[in-house]
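Homework help board

Subject: predicted structure for assignment chain

Our instructor gave us this sequence and asked us to write out the predicted structure in token form, then describe one feature. I got the tokens but I'm not sure how to describe them. Can anyone check?
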Amino acid sequence: MGRELGREWPLTGRTEELRFIERVGRRGRHARGVLLAGAAGVGKTRLAREAVAAAVRRGAATRWATGTASARARPLGAFAAWAGPGDGDASRALERTTAALLTGTGPAGPVIAVDDAHLLDDLSALLVHQLVLRQAAAVVITVQAGRPAPDAVTALWKDGHLDRVEVRPLSPPQTGALLEAVLGGPVDRTAVARLWKLTRGNALILRHVVDTELAVRHLRRVRGLWRWSGPPAVSPVLADLVAARMGELSGAERDVVDLLALGEPVDTALLGRLADPRAVEEAEARGLVTVEQAGDTLWARLAHPLYGEVRRAALGTLRARRLRGRMARALADRPGHHHDDTLRRAVLALDSDLPPDPDLFTAAAAHAALLADMPLVERLARAAVAAGAGFEAQLLVTTALAATTRHKDIEDELAVLTALAATDAELIRATLVRVPALAYVTSGPAEAEAVLDEAESRVRQPGFRHQLTALRSYLEATQGRVARAVACATAALQAPDLPDEPVILASVGLVAALGVTGRADLLSPAAARGTEAAARSSQLGFLRAPLTMAHVTGLRLAGRLREAGDVAARFREETRDQDFGDELGGFLVGETELARGRVADAVRRLREALVGLREHGNAGGFVYFCLLSLTRALALTGDLPGARSSLAELEAERSPSFAVLDPELALARASVSAVEGALGEAVALARAGADAAARNGQHAHEVLALQTAVCLGDTSLAARLAGLAARVDGPRVRAAAAHAAALSTRDGEGLRAASARWEETGDLLVAADAAAQCASTHLRHGDRAPAHAAAARAHRLAEACQGARTPALLEAARPVPLTRREREIAVLAARGLTNQQIADRLTVSVRTVEGHLYRVCGKLGITNRKDLAALLLNT
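My token output:
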């Protein structure tokens, strides 16, 4: 479980500070020592100990003293161990203590460290001052920033006798590096961000939080990745530490802190009505509360996130319920309150001493749905239903379950919702939630279509029928019936006064279909209309995620990679605080990283996203989508066991609900075959994916599959890609057609130009493959100079792709005089396959395999498979 609790943590992220303290103990004409200043717990003492340890390694004698409030009451209290019995003469005591400190220090000289020097008594401070001025010892001092220190200590850095180093809290990247060093493995980015936000980079607090979260199993390793789930647990040690930082609170100050702990942020006008205004001012002056202006309003919040955690843990149930009730009543009594007040009132009222208000809870749940806070939607909506609310509240319950893909709960709740639908309008609204839930969460497309068919048979009003047509476009698109999806979506979106919910559904269907058919020039306007409707819908606003995925997929297939990356990054930034929004955003960003060839970054992001999505069950198919990209990414890094395992998971997750992505499944299979060395099989899989896509009219997928086959060495696809260039939007098809044409004629200069063209699109990995093919082509022609130049280009691009390994790159990196078939058989043999297994894999005879291997060994001058693996696989 990583490092054991209580063990010393490594010193991480302090390179600059360590460079300063490196001079400690080294003689010179200038300042000989360092003063480390910073907040409590930031790591000053640890740095001082590191400085002392470095001095010990140089042979110096060291002394360690600590300033304390109790020792400050007597002269030389911090140096009592060296002071000896006194006679009341301060001067002689000072000389005697100095001599004791310096006695027996040897030729390397002494190093004296004083921790918490701001707590020194005046005589101790004078002793340190004299040691520095006389250059009798190197000195390391720590002081707490913002606390008054004796003048003799302050003068040391103000007069330039010591270097002052501000020891700042750890940054988020430093926090992540420290956590990975402590836990012994990769840590989920979301966990790092949460821990940094909670601790503000304070190393001491971070350690206590991590130790506690490990003990309660909130921080745990999941599939090789450390994740943190659940609210922070407040241990007694952490509570005492935070309470000490807060200091003693008067009764009025405690009211201020507790009110904010339960409902921050609170505008100062309201806080002044709920608590003593002078106590609010005092809390701000003491650093307990911060006040920030937003527009015309001043907002108060606690100065540190842990203040709220500690106070909430300490509050009694009755006091907490009473304070929440006071705040909720005050918000209700304030004139002109808006939606934010409604949501805050409802959240406070849920656990207060107020009677339940079904109308308030329903309105608040709808507002929470607009913010995509689905756990809160469910909590508020269930409270509304329990308090007597009807269809609207139940609709919000099912909305929350559908958005969070809660398979176990949703079927019963959908039945309740359908029973509550008293009008055709309510039946339609229930159907718009029920059908996607059946298709993508519970039963699959067959039952979903049956329910949709039944609804269409019952409804005659044109406006309602348009809504159901919009819903059908969504189902048609995801099942790969893209022409039908476009027709349904177009008809629905042309209907007058179409509500937001069917607009969202039709937009998802339309964008998904346009993207895979290759009509990328129409994507962004269609996606924009759906996104605008999603921002207004409490019922189906959560479908912004599949809408954005369809948008990113279409842009990626078209080769508009920078635009796809921008859309994915914007979605992640806007949704990272929503329920598994960070995982969905991380998946989309990882997918675009993979498309640009940054395979190591893609693997890291996709693995993090997959672990998080797995915790939500099926996650509406996003686990499947994530595995599609992760399998290819792992294969491209050369991780054959990881790629095989990921492919097995992918095959198990496949659903007819997402048949539109079957061409990408074929490419995932091809990527694993390619890394295994079965290039003929990989090409066949890619071409099969292209043929299936062509039959369904998914011409953008067809282009990607054919491009993959070209990168694997297929020289027969130039005419087919040239034909697609006239019907598919975007730079990918044109680049792929030029690449295929150059490969088909073994045109080295054409392959060099194709590589440059791919690099312009941002697809660095395909650019590297084209450069590698260029190098191999020139080498076959005996043109060594251009071959070396192309190989160097391929190497540069592969480095930018973070060490990606493809068949073309491996061939260019290890040029051997083998035919394509000989190399394929040799690689499979190097992978450990027997001759019979190779024969079965390639559907040839064992004698054919034996003959090829005999010729390979003769050409390469080797006699066993171990040498073959070393030559071809770099093992």
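Reply (TA_rk): Your tokens look well-formed. For the description, you could write something like this. The radius of gyration is 34 Å. That's the kind of observation they're looking for.
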